[in-house]
Amino acid sequence: MIVAPRPLGPDATIGILGGGQLGRMLALAAARLGFKCHVLCPDPQSCAFDVVRRVTEADYTDKEALDRFANDVDVVTYEFENVPAETATFLSARKPVLPDPKILATTQDRLLEKTFVTALGIETAPFAAVDDRAGLDAALAAVGRPAVLKTRRFGYDGKGQVTIRAGDDPGIAWDEIGRQPAILEAFVPFEREVSVVVARGLDGTVQAFDLCENEHRDHILKVTRVPAAVPTEIAEAARKIAGRIAEAFGYVGVMAVEMFWVAGDAGGGGRVLVNEIAPRVHNSGHWTQDGCTVSQFEQHIRAVAGWPLAVPVRHGRAEMINLIGAEVDEHKTWLAVPGASVHLYGKPIVRPGRKMGHVNRVLFD
Fold it and tell me: Domain containing 201: what range?
């Protein structure tokens, strides 16, 4: 039996699965509204541990720890999508878990996710399932080259994927992803990578933030700019697509829908294709902390607490710059830049490719 959610009072405790920077920023937003937070994560150096009332350092499969965690919270949410779906299901029999664990299971599998989206009549890149080496050859024959081979599960920041171009040996690509169940997606000649951060409340209300455009470096998001430099009709279409997906899921909370804008023949118009869904707050939504009347983190807390969603109003043009690895030392320079706000995650170890913080800038014309 699943425990149904209900609106919470401001003294309630919100349980967060995962102790990274997203959990940290969720907890900070929750505290602003009077909530307490309890974080469960196996990593003793979790940066979210520093800002919450209570922590449980335990594996996501430790049922005794999960029971203790559930007894101390009023609702459970998560900060990243690789929390085992079984963990969320186990907890849902004890306390409300939002978003629904079934959504987590769907979005953890790229094939299930793409199939769900296309069943709604929403366009994605052409794709095919790959279960073995022979299946890869069949998928390449159907999808064509270039194409991107991705593991069905546990891929992020470019991990678990490889591009197959004309002349490439598919066997090498198959070995590179560990010969795991995969999905082959046709390469999309996109104009821009864009995303919509959207929220759906317990009462079914949907609120979407403005479409933003994203610049990646070494497969990691480096810069987000808002509003995206796309035609108005494309921005509206993208926001509507995100809302449709949230409603079809019966989603409660904030999620991000990553998309490609494929421009029309004259460089305008065109269409958007859904790439991936992140069932959580998202890096491309960090700009909302300083560039909008409500942040994605507060919006998520409002949703899972059963509170009314805010109507997001952007303050001006905004951009978010990730501080990756040793770039965290640049925070000293950013502190002196007018209109810039520095957010550091308090991670004790600096590694190449590790997100250490970000800077938001609000740019007024």
Answer: 192-363
Q: How far is CA 79 from the centre of its chain?
A: 9
Across the range 242-256, mean pLDDT stands at: 98
Residue finishing a domain among 155, 186, 217 = 186
Give the chain's largest Cα–Cα span: 61
Residue 135 sits in a domain of what CATH number? 3.30.1490.20
Domain match, 226 and 278 both: yes
Question: What CATH number did the domain enclosing 213 receive?
Answer: 3.30.470.20
180-232 pLDDT, tens digit per residue, is 999 999 999 999 999 999 999 999 999 999 999 999 999 899 999 999 999 99
Identify whether residues 198 and 171 lie together within a single domain: no
Domain-located, residue 213: yes
The DSSP string of 240-294 is HHHHHHHHHHT--EEEEEEEEEE--TTSS--EEEEEEEESS--GGGTTHHHHBSS
255-312 tens-digit pLDDT? 999 999 998 876 667 999 999 999 999 999 999 999 999 999 999 999 999 999 999 9
Report pTM. 0.95
Domain boundary among 57, 76, 97: 97
- Per the rule left: phi > 0, alpha: psi between -120 and 50, beta: everything else, 345 is alpha
Residue 183 pLDDT? 97
Residue 284 CA: distances (Å) to CA of 22, 195, 319: 12, 7, 10
In sequence order, the 6+-apart residues with CB closer than 8 A to the CB of 326 are 350, 352
Q: What was the pLDDT predicted at 153?
A: 87
Whether residue 202 is found in the same domain as residue 345: yes
